[in-house]
Amino acid sequence: MDRATFACSTAFFRDSGNSCPAARSLPGAHVDFIDKVDSFTYSDFFRDYLIPNHPCIFSAKFTEDWGSRRNWVTWDGKPNFEHLLQKFGDAVVPVANCDVKEYNSNPKEQLPFKEFVKYWKEYIRNGYRSSRGCLYLKDWHLSRAFPEHDVYTTPVYFSSDWLNEYWDAVAVDDYRFVYMGPKGSWTPFHADVFRSYSWSANICGRKKWLLYPAGQEEFLKDCHGNLPFDVTAPSLRDRKVYPRYGQSQPPVEIVQEAGEIVFVPSGWHHQVYNLEDTISINHNWVNGCNVAVMWCFLQDELAAVQREINQWKDPMDDWHLQCQLIMKSCTGIDYKEFYNFLKVIAENRISVLEKGLDEESSAQNNSRAAISTLGMLHAVFDLERTGKVLSSLSANEDFRKLDLSSLSPPPEALLHHLKAAIDTALL
User: Fold this and answer.
1) What residue spans define the domains of the chain?
2) I need a labelling partner for 229 at 20 to 30 A (CA). Which of 75, 124, 185, 420 fits?
3) What would the pLDDT profile of 48-70 be if each residue is shown by its tens digit?
């Protein structure tokens, strides 16, 4: 990040205070296509897409050196089933049935990868029909299961990735996925986990995206406040069921070709179709540009839980703790883990600002390597963003009602250390 971009982005967030960033529509529903690798910098992406929260498409030139694009695809652009079976045949993978609705999603089962590929081949031979329905391999943690394979390299534009930095540090989970599905497989209407950013690269095949800018989803809720399963369903035109549908903007529509990467902004709801037999690589990620959105999302989720079980508030001694447990079971995180998430991000950058970067430690640590690539000013920006959200969390009434004695260091001490590191770095 250069100094001009740092100054501009810092001023932008100072003006916004501690409130949730306002939803911003996309003028003219235009989506920029980024064609040239050499002339498009990280600062360009940060300034023009991350901060304003606008989508864009990266050309296939940005992925042409990936191992998956060389080896997972046949000469005519189809999935290379034989190569995939040779490399991953014994893996067990999560598979969704696109023909079945379960709540607001599709039911999943675990299948041997070789069984899924056998099904996929038969599905193609039968004219894309099967008594088993349309199956879609989704959310496969391939990078975690096969770290030694040359599959892809995360583009620098997406390298400030706090979600995977944190979950790598605690060695519990990650948000790096592979998707594989036949023509006609799809993903119902949703927003990504924690209202994160996402990027999705097609290894082969084509996708159609329908995206709604953050805030537009409010017009798509039914009379009970529920979002639709399928945003293209004719029932949305029934004003008795969806009273505000007529106020919604048309979706931003993208057709993504093989090799291209789609950047999905934070909080944008979307629905995705595979127009051909398709393989894609997807990451969810949060950083200093949208961590406030994540924090607002968590507050909204907790408030929803509290409303749901409010009738048991008086007779339940540990009501506030139970609300946290329910929220974590639904979203994957509670307030205390969110503190630990902010702590890991902050301490990694404090360490860099205080001790500097040496090449050996950077090469061995993905987070330090990313900080090294993006520079010290980016580390300062990250700390400023972390500090704002940490201050808000520390003052939050629901957070303060929890037993915080296990948090080390205490929030006040971490905030003091964080601010001192920023002051020293900017001298």
Assistant:
1) 25-213+249-285, 290-426
2) 124
3) 999 999 999 999 999 999 999 99
Distance, in Å, from the CA atom of 31 to the CA atom of 46, rounded to the nearest integer, reads 16
Length of the chain counted residue by residue: 427
pLDDT digits (tens, 9 = 90+) for 140-170: 999 999 999 999 999 999 999 999 999 999 9
Domain 25-213+249-285 sits in CATH at: 2.60.120.650
Question: Across the beta sheet with 108-112, what order do the strands follow?
Answer: 32-34, 56-58, 261-264, 197-204, 278-285, 176-181, 135-140, 92-97, 108-112
Provide the 3-class DSSP secondary structure of residue 57: strand
Start-end of H helices in 211-257: none
Amino acid at position 54, single letter: H
On the 0-12 / 13-18 / 19+ scale of CB atoms within 10 A, 2 is: middle
For residues 49 and 324, what is the distance between their CA atoms, to the nearest angstrom?
Answer: 33
What does the DSSP assignment read for 312-348?
GTTT-TTHHHHHHHHHHHHHS--HHHHHHHHHHHHHH
- What DSSP designation does 417 have? H
Residues 6+ apart with CB under 8 A from 259: 59, 60, 61, 63, 64, 69, 201, 202, 203
User: How buried is 404 (Cβ within 10 angstroms: 0-12 exposed, 13-18 middle, 19+ buried)?
Assistant: middle
Tokens of 423: 């002051």
CA torsion 366-370-372-374 (nearest 10°) is 180
Contact 43, 1 (CB under 8 A): yes
Q: What average pLDDT score do residues 344-373 get? A: 74
Q: What is the pLDDT of residues 381-423, one digit of tens each?
A: 999 999 999 999 999 999 999 999 999 999 999 999 999 999 9
Q: Is the dihedral of CA 221, 222, 228, 234 positive or negative?
A: negative
**Which pLDDT does position 271 carry in this prediction?**
98
Q: Give the Cα-Cα-Cα angle 170, 172, 178 (nearest 5 degrees).
A: 125
In single-letter form, the type of residue at position 319 comes to: W
Percentage of residues in the chain having pLDDT higher than 90: 83
Locus of tokens 């300062």: 380
Radius of gyration of the chain (CA): 22
DSSP lists the bridge partners of residue 284 as 198
